[in-house]
Amino acid sequence: MKPERGPLRVALLGCGVVGSEVVRLLREQADDLAARVGTPLELAGVAVRRPERVRAGVDPALVTTDAQGLVTRDDVDIVVEVIGGIEPARTLMLEAMKTGKSVVTANKALLAEDGATLFAAAREYGADLYYEAAVAGAIPLLRPLRESLVGDHVHRVLGIVNGTTNYILDQMDSGGAGFNEALEEAQALGYAEADPTADVEGFDAAAKAAILAQLAFHTPVTAADVHREGITEVSAADVAGAKGMDCVVKLLAICERVPSEGGRNGRGVSVRVYPAMIPRTHPLASVREAYNAVFVEAESAGSLMFYGAGAGGAPTASAVLGDLVAVARNVVGGTPGPVEVTYAKLPVLPMGETVTRYYIHLDVTDEAGVLATVAEEFARHEVSIQAVRQVGLGEEAQLVVVTHRAPDAALSAVVEGLRGLDSVREVASVMRVEGEE
Ligand SMILES: NC(=O)C1=CN([C@@H]2O[C@H](COP(=O)(O)OP(=O)(O)OC[C@H]3O[C@@H](n4cnc5c(N)ncnc54)[C@H](OP(=O)(O)O)[C@@H]3O)[C@@H](O)[C@H]2O)C=CC1
Ligand SMILES: N[C@@H](CC=O)C(=O)O
């Protein structure tokens, strides 16, 4: 008979929105977790910045500001990092792995910036590094990509991966709160990052897109490789324009293989984050509030959709606990899980080469020949127009143009050209359009 092992000791780094929910779940589900792991999970310490704060359900004797001391303690088996940011999180995780501990983290910013260093350490020290909570909150998405779909050939991952911006855009669309008010609500609900610029400027979604692309295509992708546009430039007029087209504006993360002639792996990958119009009939259009949804399109599996709570303390803690149990089982079994291998070295293609569609809203002079002048600008850059519509007359004259698919460089050259035309008073709105033509 195997000797019974003692409890597994868990060091928690950070006890904010996510960390406090991890503590609650560890306490409330202690017996079930022990049964699932085969031994109890016990909190060894909780590292924070402000130890004087009262934290519900946390034994004050466990609280410390010495995170470094905590992760290197001999009586710690697993480290859960929910501090966020690059440092000291990176050093702490590396120290933990160096001293034989496995790590669970929700830190997408760090994984997308310097995941390679962390994965190398995990390999070198035989430690687990699990991070399901880093992308799309509660939704099991990384494990399906890493394990269930590892035998398939993924073509595309596309979806809404930032709860805060979806919440704001949803409010703008439904005529509820304005941008700032909706952002404040998202912060109060625990969806936003410590610095919400990461959300509204698309950094958070770009980090998640990098992580998704790396897993889906087995190729190194960092946040710096991702074309990123946030939602701060999305105006009420853009949202109204989308409504006029029976569309809705969503911040999308898109990771796709770009096909090559005959090559199976493709010419490279395109990884991008930007606000785009999608038809209201598209499944992503019905993703409201801080929910996330991601489509994965794979050769044999076809199209899979993952949907659920993408942010917030409890949903994210659920994903952390899932990883914690998985890692704990590996510790009990004495074998670490698989570590990411990025064997394919596919280039990340520049945005200019990516094929997209544009919606362009122009204020124009209402006179004969305007349409022809505008159309000529599209033709000059070999961009084909799918639909054009005039709204308003005289001073109010406007043209709404939707293009067919074309390289992004050509589309943005068209916009530049339009800005220079005498008959175009203003380029009032430009937005990419996703979904079927
Ligand atoms: N909130 C969400 O919905 C989601 C968050 N995440 C990720 O989870 C992580 C944590 O996010 P969240 O809980 O929202 O963040 P919070 O800002 O709410 O919590 C951060 C915690 O880290 C502690 N901390 C900060 N700096 C240090 C330091 N130098 N040493 C020790 N402790 C420190 C803080 O201490 P103190 O309490 O004393 O200030 C706080 O307890 C981030 O990586 C985030 O991106 C992932 C998915 C969803
Ligand atoms: N700030 C993030 C939190 C989850 O990752 C978001 O809003 O999605």
UniProtKB/TrEMBL annotation:
Binding, L-homoserine: E193
Organism in which the protein naturally occurs: Actinomadura physcomitrii
Pfam families linked to this entry: Homoserine_dh, NAD_binding_3
The enzyme's E.C. designation: 1.1.1.3
Domain ACT intervals: 359-432
Active-site feature positions: K208 (proton donor)
Listed cofactors: a metal cation
UniProt entry keywords in alphabetical sequence: Amino-acid biosynthesis, Metal-binding, Methionine biosynthesis, NAD, NADP, Oxidoreductase, Sodium, Threonine biosynthesis
Uppermost EC category: oxidoreductase
Family of this protein: Belongs to the homoserine dehydrogenase family.
Annotated catalysed reactions: L-homoserine + NADP(+) = L-aspartate 4-semialdehyde + NADPH + H(+); L-homoserine + NAD(+) = L-aspartate 4-semialdehyde + NADH + H(+)
InterPro entries the record matches: ACT-like_dom_sf (IPR045865), ACT_dom (IPR002912), Asp/hSer_DH_NAD-bd (IPR005106), HDH (IPR016204), HDH_cat (IPR001342), HDH_CS (IPR019811), NAD(P)-bd_dom_sf (IPR036291)
Role, per record: Catalyzes the conversion of L-aspartate-beta-semialdehyde (L-Asa) to L-homoserine (L-Hse), the third step in the biosynthesis of threonine and methionine from aspartate.
SUPFAM superfamilies: ACT-like, Glyceraldehyde-3-phosphate dehydrogenase-like, C-terminal domain, NAD(P)-binding Rossmann-fold domains
One example GO MF annotation: metal ion binding
Residues that bind NADP(+): L13, G14, C15, G16, V17, V18, G19, S20
One biological process term in Gene Ontology: methionine biosynthetic process
PANTHER family referenced in this protein's UniProt entry, alphabetically: HOMOSERINE DEHYDROGENASE (PTHR43331)
UniProt binding sites for NADPH: K108
Protein name: Homoserine dehydrogenase
Metabolic or biological pathway, per its Swiss-Prot or TrEMBL entry: Amino-acid biosynthesis; L-threonine biosynthesis; L-threonine from L-aspartate: step 3/5; Amino-acid biosynthesis; L-methionine biosynthesis via de novo pathway; L-homoserine from L-aspartate: step 3/3
